[in-house]
Amino acid sequence: MLWYVGRRLLQMIPVFLGATFLIYAMVFLLPGDPIAALAGDKALSPAVAAQLRERYHLDEPFLTQYLLYLKGIFTLDFGTSFSGRPVSEVLAQAFPITIKLSLMALAIEGIFGVGFGLWAGLRKGGIFDSSVLLVSLVIIAIPIFVIGFLAQFFVGVKWGLVPPTVGGNTSFKNLLLPAFVLGSVSFAYVLRLTRTSVAENLTADYVRTATAKGLSRRRVVQVHVLRNSLIPVVTFLGADLATLMGGAIVTEGIFNINGVGGTIYQAVTRGEAPTVVSFVTVLIVIYLLANLLVDLLYAALDPRIRYV
């Protein structure tokens, strides 16, 4: 097991370097002068502009800037934003909020998606199955910002069940509605994926063999059908964690959440390459670790993988 984990960690190194290089290159190639954007309507004097470019290494070639950034990453120095605030402080403030929001959304889509998908798969072709397939298709078809505004208006404003905006209060109650909105589309995919996988596994030979041996339907479903059906679902959920964190820009904007999404958006508009790449770097690390965790969970779900 340790050998496998070590090999997977070594495989992550080129992925990490390639992803950070591409992100840094894309931010570097954005049009406009970040120093001029920092000044706003007031033009900076040539001396001050040159001093700022030297401070943030903007006068260096692209490759030199990237290597200096990598050096800072490996020494846990993420640099300084154009506002003069250390990027590490910005990370420490924004990431806990988005991680909490994303984990809540992941739990919602996992619990409800697997639950409804299992129930629909066991009753394939019935009224419940047809209903959840229709509802999930409608959720997938509606843009997330529409779902967000509708949920905010009806649940938060009209019915007053939860606060319509979050602001600085990131309690569980305040983040519950944004978490439902953020995980709504993924919930629909998890539901459909679980339903299809369960329906297919119900007709497999090993299920008929287990039934012929006299096992109860509940045990067949729990031990055989559900465990094998969860393998593609776990794969989707593992990859979806980083996707939720990176795609929270719209949800955080609707509910006024000061998390990763809003910070990345502001940094992109200002051309702050260190801030953008630092946030994306952390997202890449989370994505890689989530995939490693998914690979380890395979062994718990499928004994054949464990034996290999």
UniProtKB/TrEMBL annotation:
Chain ranges of the ABC transmembrane type-1 domain: 95-298
Bilayer-crossing regions: 12-30, 97-120, 132-155, 175-191, 225-250, 276-301
UniProt KW Transmembrane helix keyword: yes
UniProt keyword annotations, A-Z: Cell membrane, Membrane, Transmembrane, Transmembrane helix, Transport
Gene3D superfamilies xref list: MetI-like
Membrane topology of the entry: Multi-pass membrane protein
Location relative to the cell: Cell membrane
Superkingdom, taxonomy of origin: Bacteria
Family under the similarity heading: Belongs to the binding-protein-dependent transport system permease family.
Name recorded for this polypeptide: ABC transporter permease
